[in-house]
Write a structure and sequence with these properties.
The complex is a heteropentamer of chains A (286), B (250), C (320), D (397) and E (238). By secondary structure, chain D is an alpha/beta fold. In chain D, helix 2 (38-57) crosses helix 10 (308-327) and helix 3 runs parallel beside helix 4. Chain D has 2 domains: 2-146 and 281-352, 3-Layer(aba) Sandwich (Rossmann fold), CATH 3.40.50.2300; 150-275 and 369-390, 3-Layer(aba) Sandwich (Rossmann fold). In chain D, a hairpin with a 2-residue loop joins strand 2 (61-63) and strand 3. The longest helix of chain D is centred in the first third of the chain and has 20 residues, at 38-57. Chain D has helices at residues 2-16, 38-57, 84-93, 106-118, 153-162, 176-191, 210-218, 230-242, 291-302, 308-327, 332-341; strands spanning 24-31, 61-63, 66-76, 99-101, 123-125, 141-143, 167-173, 195-202, 223-227, 249-253, 271-275, 343-346, 349-352, 369-376, 379-386. Chain E has a 6-stranded mixed sheet with strand order 6-7-8-3-9-10, sandwiched between helices. In chain E, strand 9 (207-212) and strand 10 (215-221) form a beta hairpin. Chain E is globular and about 45 Å long. Helices cover 39% and strands 27% of the residues of chain E. The chains are: A mainly alpha (286), B alpha/beta (250), C mainly alpha (320), D alpha/beta (397), E alpha/beta (238). Chains in contact: A-C, A-D, A-E, B-C, B-E, C-D. The interface between C and D is large, with 41 and 44 residues.
Chain lengths: 286, 250, 320, 397, 238
């Protein structure tokens, strides 16, 4: 019983980080109807930013978080102009391929630079132990930061002018343009924001686990699952979807072999797509 | 004359909007029934309900004695109902001829590819697109696309043709030609249910007219009866009271 | 139908493809052509979905992998000959696809694409847990299994020829479908599914049928390929990366055309193969391939043949 | 654009021109320069390259009074077996490789083995421990490593000495090699009546082991045997430490053998690894460099101490060299005959191949050791703790 | 004659290979209400979209307040006060009334007067004030049209261009909107109106342009146009 409770807590902690990763994907998807297949690569960028800052510059680990947000935003805007801008309004397949190409380039550059060897950033945080189960400090911190960042994103989207403009563009781009909103800049910014979120999730993940240039794919697939669970284009839903996924992982483990969990995950994923194609909390395209 | 299509008490609601409200109408074999009403009166929704794009919330639709309520659209098409859309929906990447071949292949007769192409060629000629059968549908002009829409519907050799504003956007000469075409179609034994704004055309083409307003039937009768109906004038041609409001000095 | 010169062209090209390495006895070339042929099969059949019906299947590799598994299982456990085993694999996978298709083809656009990823990953993980197929270890073929084909050396040639035959069949099937009523219905769905439905195209049935049809030959090819490889493991049988690369190939050559995907597959594979083996590029092969794809998607979205057709519209007549 | 095309075409022609192999012996292999197996495969490749440099530095291999230089041809297999067959065929036919060394990891080895067999080329396998590969009827495959069934038997014995009644959790990657290793040791454990507290396989891409660790804690496991390759093994070790799992004995495959494992800091302490070779090994070689000489040369060249993958790479070359020199010929049949008859001790230990036709080429001479990370003078070092004859330190428990 | 605020000369536009507009020209004087009439598919909406930058014109010239703005993007035109209330309302359906209005005042120029303009709009449409926190997607057609006009007004328009004011609305609602428009005109806002209800449009406006098949057909003061028989042919086909 206590074991199950421990699994639940662990599931919630890791799930919050999954949610943060998915938030970047879902924001971009919701605003510009682009499924960003470079998402995993961006998560990896976040991981290596942590590695560089901590190992090369000796920054404290969580100091990398704000740096990554700024850097991710800049990188995202760059990627938008390189690979996404011309795809806006084109068939979905085109943006899928374009972002996939970005993914290849990023992974390729990363492989040439860092090879595919694992890297490890040791972050020392006090952990909490309880009846033989231990919840590590990095997990708790990462989950807390994920929730804080999600909250900040909510404030940004719902209580600032620029955030409202993002939502307006997501709802009806042409009308937004007619209102005087420079929609192209808003799209670029939203992409930057999405990339920043994905990157920061990578940074947080890298505080918890060793990683390689190829680690992103696992998180990209999880982000898809989370996005579908939480509703497309809905950042708040992403957090809930992430926690739901973490819970599924945590809760299913005591009852079945670990190797069956992906089947449950992806089965649920396909089922949710068919049964709730628009998710439950979708804030665009009713 | 026997009833070809019977629409009984159908309703459809979209969110807060009652698009169609307990509407009944009948199309008889070989007749042209005009469906008119102001924009937003629910005319296109009626078409969507008839050919199964949306299932109605209530009521039934019977075509040649068969209940076709709720579609799916391709089954309705098979039964012999074809449709030309108001907002043209060409299969843009296909040629004019292929567009019509699709109609012939999957329409009432369900022809094989070769005979379907023959039918398509015939129809394309008749509709006046015979000089450019290989052109991509997407590169036709608006008028060309309208025509293609009609040709495609006709290629299905339907028993009932739903025409949604096929004359809109055509110039007077083209309109004349199209009216003639519609006459020809009717003469070949196809019944027609048409939505049309161009009153002269509706008046001259229709055997009967149904006027729709806010989703329900406002009037029904011969063209003359409808044209003389004061309610129709108010709802459709503009309210004279409105004019007086507008003309009052501000 | 056989009056069409295009068909003779395909058959002639296939003969050259099959026989050139044989007469020059260039086995290196053969291996490279074999891999390209496998990709042509994947791309060409994927094109039925993407190019004709307008549905992007991200998990197309699942057919290939499952076909391989069924074939190798029949060969090792039940000692079947590889040809009936591969065909049985194809038929079984095709039937399975029909069932799945009826479910997930209710989804459109990106939702369908994502669901196919889910299906691929779920099936891969199922196979990992499926002990009769060796679980994660997979199925290893004993060298004796090549006996019926005249030993390992000869088996390489035989499987090569069989794979080229499947490649040819893929192109011919693509042609036949393109010029059939079924194909016309698919093209209509690909252009505008709702309009197609109103025109009478039985969309759910056609979509499930094309999903199933696009599964058959890749599954057969999977059987032959993994038989030739002598080993099948879940990670290589259901490799999502390969699946996505197949989409790239379709786009590169021009989706919706008959030869485009084949051309795209061939060029992509040869380019990747070259970059991988050329020492000066091997560090950056992924970057170069990615940048190339980016340029194509942004500036030549119709792919090579799409571009040719747009530039010289008359080519459409004799290339299709 | 056009210029670039010509450049491509020109370099393609250049690459395709036949190699002139008059005074060289060409040896081909693929390595995972990219992909999941990169870390271990690179170590192996470094070993092979060091061997080449040593041989060529001493004037090459002497065959029948003539000296041949070693030429290595290698391609990136991307850690995926899709390309392995194409690349090995290319090595044989285009690059005219006379001998082959295997890629790294059992799955890729099995795939490459088909090609080497089909073309009758001798292939020394290193990093391909799975025994199944050698039971498919091959005649030209020679396994340098001790087979997978032996990997954890030592660990189990060492564990039983510390704790006669262990509650063992098997947690391992679901790849062919790890599964085969665990299968063998699990059977042994069950036969001896040990308690199997948990039995979990995980995907190689797993990054979070918390659920598994919680499950182990719930099952009151006090020993863990398993692992897979580098990335997952390192993650598992780190999480075991961070989650303070009450396991007293952890043996993981592959990962802890790498010197990189020390990056994990305290997480590494007490973790043991079955190893094909350790620098502390005290073998007296009949042929080739001493253990010390190899370790020194490797450390000088790559600035990192060699682990068993690197040693395996070097030894693969060495064994081949020995066979060629004894055969006095580069004819594959004669070299294969020498390999069949070989029973030699090098710095890597004893090497002898099975001649049984059911398992031809299987390694039967070599023994494994068990190494454990321990802290010595504030530094992390790997000590050999099993077998007793070879041990350099007592096991931590 | 008063100052010409908006002048369009020889405007050409189209979609893909299809040209829709062939040299549309019109002038709107400051403080007046001008209407653009034509049959379905005649190119009215396309004209407005090309003028306001929602689509890119292929030729011709749009001069606004003495400045050539032909090639400016829509948001820049909106910021200068050339504001379109598009056909079909195009509200931000998942946002509240007030958020919609806030978006209307996005440009820097409009932002400065946000509070004051909000009060003005709420006075004009008290119904919107009552439901300021409600999502616009739940509104009836008439309320949506009110909000669309209010959103347009928030941009501090020099000229408000309204496409299909009465489309799909009940007569009573149309009547209310007509009153609103008269009020706007009285307060000095320049309006360019596209409206299918010919009588309404001609009654409200000072000057009318009729186009057919994407080409100019006729123009004149509204009262004169209303009296011409050609207009019936072009518009109603009667």
């Amino acid at each position: 019983m206590i074991g199950i409770l421990a699994s639940v807590i662990d599931g919630i902690l890791i799930g919050a980080v999954y949610g943060l990763a998915a938030m970047g994907l879902t924001l971009i998807w919701g605003v510009m109807n682009v499924i960003n297949l470079a998402h995993g690569a961006i998560v990896v960028v976040g991981m290596f930013v942590l590695y560089m800052l901590v190992s090369a510059l000796g920054l404290p680990a969580y100091g990398a978080v704000p740096v990554m947000i700024v850097l991710g935003f800049v990188i995202g805007i760059g990627l938008y102009w390189i690979g996404v801008h011309r795809m806006i309004g084109r068939p979905e397949l085109m943006s899928l391929l374009s972002t996939f190409a970005l993914n290849m380039v990023l992974i390729g550059l990363g492989t040439a630079w860092w090879t595919t060897s694992p890297y490890n950033v040791q972050v020392n945080m006090p952990s909490v132990s309880w009846r033989g189960y231990t919840f590590t400090g990095t997990h708790i911190t990462a989950a807390a930061l994920a929730v804080v960042i999600a909250g900040l994103l909510y404030l940004l989207l719902y209580h600032t002018r620029i955030g409202k403009a993002v939502r307006a563009v997501a709802t009806n781009r042409e009308a937004a343009e007619l209102c005087g909103i420079p929609t192209t800049q808003v799209l670029a910014m939203a992409f930057g924001l999405g990339v920043a979120l994905a990157g920061v999730s990578g940074t947080l993940i890298a505080t918890m686990f060793p990683f390689t240039v190829l680690s992103g794919e696992a998180y990209q697939l999880k982000s898809f699952v989370v996005t579908v669970l939480g509703g497309l284009g809905n950042p708040a839903g992403a957090l809930m979807g992430g926690i739901a996924l973490g819970l599924i992982e945590g809760l299913a483990t005591p009852f079945m072999p670990v190797s069956w969990i992906p089947i449950v995950e992806f089965g649920l994923f396909v089922f949710c797509l068919i049964a709730f194609p628009r998710g439950i909390f979708s804030f665009t395209k009713a | 004359m026997s009833a070809l299509l019977e629409v009984n008490n159908i309703s459809k609601r979209f969110g807060g909007l009652q698009a169609v409200d307990r509407l009944s109408l009948t199309v008889n074999e070989g007749e042209i029934l005009g469906l008119i009403g102001p924009n937003g009166a629910g005319k296109s929704t009626v078409f969507n309900l008839i050919n199964g794009v949306y299932p109605p919330d209530g009521g039934s639709i019977v075509f040649v004695g068969q209940d076709i309520t709720g579609g799916p659209p391709y089954r309705v098409a098979r039964q012999g109902i074809a449709r030309a859309h108001q907002i043209v929906q060409p299969l843009g990447g296909l040629s004019v001829l292929d567009n019509c071949t699709v109609g012939a292949c999957f329409g009432r007769q369900g022809l094989g590819l070769v005979p379907a192409r023959e039918v398509a060629r015939e129809v394309v000629d008749m509709i006046g697109l015979g000089d450019r059968p290989d052109m991509l549908a997407a590169s036709l002009t608006t008028a060309g696309k309208k025509r293609l829409e009609l040709a495609r519907a006709l290629s299905a050799r339907p028993r009932l043709l739903l025409l949604d504003e096929v004359l809109a956007g055509l110039n007077p000469t083209e309109t004349e030609g199209m009216i003639e075409t519609v006459h020809k179609i009717r003469d070949s034994g196809v019944a027609i249910l048409m939505i049309e704004h161009i009153m002269r055309a509706v008046m001259s083409l229709s055997d009967r007219i149904v006027v729709l307003n806010l989703g329900s039937k406002l009037a029904e009768g011969s063209p003359q009866q409808v044209a003389d109906n004061p309610e129709v004038i108010t709802a459709y041609l503009g309210d004279s009271k409105l004019l007086s409001v507008a003309e009052k000095p501000a | 139908m056989w009056r069409r010169p295009f068909l003779w062209f395909i058959v002639a090209a296939a003969l050259v493809y099959a026989l050139y390495p044989y007469f020059t006895d260039d086995v290196g070339m053969r291996e490279s052509l074999l891999l390209a042929a496998v990709y042509i099969i994947l791309a060409s059949n994927l094109n039925l979905m993407i190019g004709y019906a307008g549905y992007v299947n991200f998990g197309n590799i699942v057919f290939f992998g499952l076909g391989g598994y069924i074939c190798l299982y029949l060969v090792t456990a039940l000692h079947w000959h590889v040809i009936p085993a591969a065909l049985t694999g194809g038929a079984a996978v095709s039937a399975l696809a029909l069932l799945f298709g009826l479910g997930i083809l209710r989804l459109r656009g990106a939702f369908f694409a994502l669901a196919t990823i889910g299906v691929n990953q779920a099936i891969q993980q199922l196979v990992v847990n499926f002990e009769p197929w060796g679980g994660a270890t997979g199925i290893y073929l004993s060298l004796d299994a090549y006996g019926p084909l005249g030993g390992p050396m000869q088996a390489l040639w035989t499987t090569y020829l069989m794979i080229v035959a499947v490649t040819t069949a893929s192109l011919l099937a693509s042609y036949a479908i393109r010029h059939s009523k079924f194909g016309l219905g698919l093209l209509a769905i690909g252009q505008n599914e709702d309009a197609a439905s109103v025109l009478g195209v039985p969309t759910p049935r056609y979509k499930a049928m094309v999903y199933s049809a696009s599964a058959f030959l890749p599954a057969v090819a999977g059987g032959l390929y993994f038989f030739k490889s002598g080993i099948i493991e879940p990670s290589s049988a259901f490799n999502l990366q390969t699946s996505i690369e197949a989409i790239v190939m379709v786009m590169l050559g021009g989706s919706g055309t008959i030869l485009g995907p084949a051309l795209g597959a061939f060029l992509y594979e040869e380019l990747r193969g070259f970059l991988l083996t050329a020492q000066s590029f091997s560090q950056f092969q992924l970057v170069i391939a990615g940048a190339l794809l980016l340029l194509i998607v942004q500036f030549v979205p119709g792919g090579l043949l799409g571009w040719v057709h747009q530039r010289w519209p008359r080519t459409r007549r004799w290339l299709e | 654009m056009r210029k670039a095309f010509y450049l491509l075409a020109a370099s393609m022609l250049f690459a395709a021109s036949p190699a002139f192999a008059q005074d060289t012996i060409t040896i081909g292999f693929t390595a995972s320069q990219t992909g999941a197996l990169n870390n271990d495969s690179t170590a192996q490749m470094r070993g092979i390259e060091l061997w080449r440099d040593d041989v060529n530095g001493k004037g090459g291999i002497k065959v029948g009074g003539k000296s041949y230089n070693i030429k290595l041809v290698t391609y990136d297999d991307e850690s995926q077996n899709t390309r392995v067959q194409q690349l090995y065929t290319r090595l044989i036919t285009q690059d005219k490789a006379q001998f082959l060394i295997s890629p790294y990891s059992s799955g890729l080895v099995a795939t490459a083995a088909i090609i080497s067999e089909q073309y009758g080329k001798v292939m020394i396998t290193t990093g391909g421990a799975l025994e199944k590969t050698y039971k498919l009827g091959n005649k030209n495959l020679f396994q340098l490593y001790t087979g997978s069934s032996q990997y954890l038997t030592g660990a189990l014995q060492a564990l039983k000495e510390k704790n006669p009644k262990p509650h063992i959790a098997f947690v391992y990657e679901d790849d062919p090699f790890s599964k085969a290793v665990v299968q063998a040791v699990r059977d042994t454990a069950k036969k001896r009546g040990d308690v199997v507290a948990a039995d979990e396989s995980y995907a190689g891409s797993t990054t979070d082991f918390s659920p598994v660790i919680n499950k182990m804690i719930s099952a009151k496991a006090d020993a863990l045997l398993g692992g897979g390759h580098y990335a997952d093994g390192a993650t598992l070790a780190r999480q075991l430490h961070e989650q303070k799992a009450a396991v007293k004995w952890v043996t993981l495959l592959v990962a802890p053998d790498s010197q990189k494992f020390a990056e994990l800091g305290d997480s590494a302490i007490g973790i043991s690894v079955p190893s094909q070779w350790e620098p502390q090994a005290a073998f007296k070689p009949d042929f080739g460099p001493t253990v010390a000489a190899f370790t020194q040369a490797f450390t000088d060249k790559y600035k990192i101490a060699p682990a068993y993958h690197a040693a395996g790479g070097y030894a693969a070359g060495l064994i081949l060299q020995h066979a060629i020199e004894k055969a006095g010929s580069t004819d594959p049949v004669q070299v294969a005959a020498q390999l069949n008859a070989m029973d030699v001790t090098t710095f890597f230990g004893r090497t002898k191949f099975s001649n049984d036709s059911k398992e031809h080429g299987l390694q039967v001479g070599h023994d494994m050791v068990l190494a454990q990370w321990q802290k010595k003078d504030g530094k992390l070092v790997k000590e050999v703790i099993w077998p007793k004859a070879a041990k350099t330190a007592d096991a931590l428990y | 004659m008063s100052e010409i605020l908006l002048q369009v000369e020889g405007l050409e536009a189209g979609y893909g290979d299809v040209q829709v507009l062939w040299g549309i020209s019109l002038k709107v004087a400051r403080g007046t209400m001008t209407t653009l009439l034509g049959a379905n598919g005649a190119g009215k909406t396309t004209s407005l979209r090309a003028i306001t930058g929602a689509m890119c014109p292929r030729g011709g010239k749009v001069v606004f307040a003495g400045e050539d703005v032909t090639w400016l993007p829509a948001h820049a035109k909106a910021a200068r006060g050339l504001v379109l209330v598009p056909e079909g309302r195009q509200l931000f359906n998942n946002m509240s009334v007030e958020e919609n209005l806030e978006m209307g005042a996005y440009s820097r120029r409009a932002r400065q007067h946000f509070r004051q303009q909000l009060d003005h709009v709420y006075t004009m449409f008290p119904r919107l004030k009552e439901r300021r926190n409600q999502k616009s997607g739940t509104f009836s057609g008439g309320e949506q049209q009110m909000l669309a006009i209010a959103r347009g007004l928030m941009a501090m328009p020099e000229i408000l261009i309204i496409d299909e004011l009465s489309l799909g609305l009940a007569p009573v609602v149309v009547q209310q909107l007509a009153e609103t428009l008269k009020g706007l005109k009285a307060s000095g806002v320049t309006v360019l109106l596209v409206e299918q209800n010919l009588h309404l449009a001609l009654a409200l406006s000072d000057y009318a342009y009729v186009i057919a098949e994407g080409r100019p057909f006729l123009e004149g003061p509204s009262a004169e146009v209303a009296a011409k028989p050609e207009i019936r042919q072009a518009y109603l086909g009667l």
